[in-house]
Fold these 2 entries.
Entry 1:
Amino acid sequence: MWVPDLENIKQVAKNAGLDDIAVTGVEPLMEARAAIKDRKRQGLHAGMNFTYGNPERATDPAQIFEGAQSILVAVLRYKPPAVEEPQTSNPRTEVRVESPKGIVASYVCSDEYGMLRRGLTAVANYLEGFGARAEVVMDDNRLADRSVAARAGLGWLGRNTMLLHPELGSWTVIGSVVTDAPIQGRAENPHDGCGTCRRCSTDCPTGAIDEFGVLDANKCLAWLLQAKGIFPREYRTALGDRLYGCDDCQVLCPINDEAMDVSGTILPRDSKVDIVTLLDSSDEELMRQFGHWYIPRRRPEYLRRNALVVLGNSQSHDDREVDRVLKSCLMASEPLVRSHAVWAALRLGKKHLIGPDVAESLVEHDPDGIVRAELDEWGILLGSESQ
Ligand code: B12
Ligand code: SF4
Ligand code: SF4
């Protein structure tokens, strides 16, 4: 078989907009397998599937197709958030956010994964043009992306668990082309550049990253915004104004301060969502606008749940529009929305929105008792109880 030259592949990748590409073999990723199993055994995966669903498969790239020999791993850089904007409400400092806007993590502000897929497809087409088999695999349960990227020499795995590229930092998405072409040219693995730094571990708003760089997804805001059920009460204040994703452990990472816009092609980000508009939107409108996000069970009530926590953390005490949407959410058919509307209203000091009669109707059709539980937390009595 014709053996492609890595330098030519790098040129194809560059022309296709990818920021860096390197090659590794298809041997199992044994350290990653041990790490995934260990996190799962300790319950740190918080019930997630992804690579946790089948750790053996996710760490055995040879299973992607029979005859696979090499993996070309690529990174694409995206634009980080504007750091001058305060975007967190940290329970340790009790800073509250200013306006009812929700912040969206940078990696979803433009079509990063679409651009990555297009770049990887160009590389795959190039290989196929010479008779090789090539399959694009990105953000897929079949491959632990960060580990395979680290093995290819694209960076080291930081304490925040991100792939830290020595020049690009961690504001990257990762994807691969698995091929049966025996491509040579393995890179040196960059050394662990975290050194004595501990910032991501000490400054994560919920303490989700431990001393040794192990992430507890039960505490990670990025996961809690995507998880089913109620948003855990103990992390609602810490959520601040984050509506989707969390960028804190990258924003505060000093490696990213030094990272440069090597490509010069990064796109502007539009990261703020108006919370009142979101809560006013129909199911169809919400799915049209945000349907590309990971939304539990594809149910728009989860977008409203998250928006209501953001609203509760805002300083919109005197805003009539806020009262209007809160009243409407208190009457929503979904108990999930009603219970978070109770939290938001009471956190904003709007107890008048939940008189005894309203409280009585709130708990109608509350099969799991989540609205009742929320009212109990605030010591709100139902009409019949206050007689
Ligand atoms: C599940 C998942 C999540 C979960 C859990 C994240 C986590 N840290 O485990 C949640 C929802 C919380 C999440 C959040 C985010 N994610 Co995510 N996520 C994934 C997914 C689907 C699987 C990750 C995984 O396998 N986790 C399992 C644990 C055990 O892995 P780990 O902690 O990273 O540990 C690995 C290494 O440390 C290594 N390892 C562990 N111990 C040791 C020891 C040694 C010696 C060695 C060498 C290796 C090693 O093995 C482990 C397994 O790969 C990948 C896509 C994919 N298919 O890989 C994207 C992915 C990791 N996410 C990504 C992104 C962008 C994010 C967010 C930044 C999004 C956001 N802004 O909200 C945050 C970052 C939060 C954080 N600090 O991780 C990118 C990361 C890009 C990068 N440059 O690193 C990925 C790769 C998606 C992609 N294809 O681009 N994510
Ligand atoms: S994404 Fe946010 S909550 Fe999750 S570990 Fe990083 S800083 Fe902590
Ligand atoms: S904040 Fe510090 S410890 Fe955490 S990943 Fe960045 S350099 Fe490493």
Note: The longest strand covers residues 70-77.
Entry 2:
Amino acid sequence: MCPVSRRFVQGDGGFFESGLLVAHCLLVELPTGLLLVDTGLSTADLADPMRRLGRGFMLTARPKRDFLGTAEAQVRGLGFKVEDVRDIVVTHLDLDHAGGLSDFPEARVHIYEPELRAMEQRRTPNEKMRYRLPHFEHGPKWSPHEVSGDLWFGFEAVRALADDVFMVPLVGHSRGHTGVAVRADHGWLLHAGDAYFHHEEMKIPPRCPMGLSLFQSQVAIDDPARRRNQERLRELVRDHGDEVNVFSAHCPVEFEALRERQRRSARPPPVISTTT
Ligand SMILES: [Zn+2]
């Protein structure tokens, strides 16, 4: 996505330069098949953006119509079939995370139950606007999860699939927003979704460009909860930064750092093999 004003969104560059936000997805090889964490935008979104994404998103987020950038094209590019993706875990159901669900209609979609309820009920104007019904009209195979007593680094968590994949609820951005923790060869990855947007928000003290800061407060369904969870993530990074790599769904700096690490590893990027 190329929002207006790089300075406002990324904190550097020009006010009139385009910014850059990524939609960071993970593809994970499990013994049961492939798992996708978040789905970004779909081929259908790029083909019919006004209906699927809406004018507001097109004018503010300004997504590139890059069909090769979709999760579907990248999965195929790695030599897999779309049907090889058996499971999907979504951090939440905003359009830039759930748009790609329709490219994987056969996959089971693991979701934190309060998020599914929020999307189905759409109780507030915020929720009527943020959840795009065309993204769900193919009938996703929902698999809702609730917290079940598992703990992950002190966070209440949900064992989503195997011992290596946990949903870590980080509510506030949306009613059922969750992080997704995946154990990789080199430690844990925590896909923190939209719990924060800019890598410097994980520093103590945190720093966030004004545009992103305003956007996050404005779009949050529960801003105090969002801030509390961000604080807990900073503590996690401070205390366990050597064991857990935390990244936001949208930060291009974190995306590049992880891609570089993946490149250097012996395994073919961007597939992350988990230990069992
Ligand atoms: Zn997002």
Note: The pocket of zinc ion is lined by residues 94, 96-97, 194, 249-250 (CB under 6 Å).
